[in-house]
Amino acid sequence: MMSESERVDRFSASYNRIDHALSEMVGEAGSTGRHRKHAFSRKIRILANRQRRFVRYADFLLEIGELRNAIVHNRTADESYIAVPNEETVLELEKIEKRLLDPERVIPRFQRKVLTLAPDTTLAEAWELVRDSGRSRFPVYGREGFIGLLTSNGFARYCAEQAVEGRLELDATKVRVEDVLQADHRKEHVAFVARDALVDDVDDMYSRKEPLEAVIITEHGKLSEKPIGMICAADVAALEY
Questions:
Q1: Which of 20, 55, 122, 220 is 20 to 30 A from 13, alpha carbon to alpha carbon?
Q2: What is the DSSP string of 7-71?
Q3: How confident is the model at residue 30 (pLDDT cuts 50, 70, 90)?
Q4: What single string gives the DSSP state of each residue in 159-188?
Q5: Amino acid 211: pLDDT
Q6: Per-domain residue ranges for the chain?
């Protein structure tokens, strides 16, 4: 258990570090070249409008700002505090500080073996991979790099296009992945990020109007590089903050 003075000290130290970092992030320079001074609450609102990762913390931090003002500006005559943060509040503030000041990168959290297909892989071979791996998304790579993403939706659409009068007859050993890829309307709904990209930024990507099927991680975020990880919507939904 923290003592009252320890709670106040740790709360104030964390608040000051966050406040300083927010000033750097807002970074609005005036004509003198110095940063304009904004109130803590103003900086929170500015950054919440710029980056989604701040939105989830905004209400808590705004309350923290009010509590800090009460601690600093409203001491009683005997120098006692009229408000003191509880231990849970201090720990939560320190946790948010770490997430804001030292945000998590996509690697190593999402580093994994990514199963890829070549354009000339047969449909039969691709089906075997689906069955054995249980996965539903496969980046397709040719000689120059990434071509598209083959999804379970693409498999289904291709089969639907080949069906005649409710019957499907095809030789899966002769159909190529590149043929199936043409039927996949989500094949281009893919983004690329480098290994040092922020997890929060990927979360942001999935919040936009344009739907994403996958975010592929490569060393430098280039389509010509082999994947070292992949993030799907379910991975983002499972993130805990």
A1: 55
A2: HHHHHHHHHHHHHHHHHHHH--B-TTSSBPP--HHHHHHHHHHH-HHHHHHHHHHHHHHHHHHHH
A3: very low
A4: HHHH-BTTB----TTT-BHHHHHTT-TTTT
A5: 85
A6: 4-102, 108-237
Strands (E), 83-207: 137-142, 145-151, 190-194
Q: What is the DSSP letter of 80?
A: -
Local structure of residue 201 (DSSP, 8 states): H
Cα(31)–Cα(140) distance, rounded to whole angstroms?
Answer: 51
User: What type of residue sits at position 25?
Assistant: M
The amino acid present at 61, given as its one-letter code, is L
What's the mean per-residue pLDDT of the chain?
Answer: 88
**How far lies 210's CA from each of 32, 179, 190, 204, in Å?**
41, 25, 10, 12
Residues 6+ apart with CB under 8 A from 73: none
**Could you say which of 2.30.29.30, 3.10.580.10, 1.20.1270.10, 3.40.50.300 is the CATH number of the domain covering 108-237?**
3.10.580.10
State the pLDDT confidence band at 83, using cuts at 50, 70 and 90.
Answer: confident
Residue 33 confidence (pLDDT) = 47
Question: How far is it, in rounded angstroms, from Cα 147 to Cα 60?
Answer: 44
**pLDDT for position 28:** 52
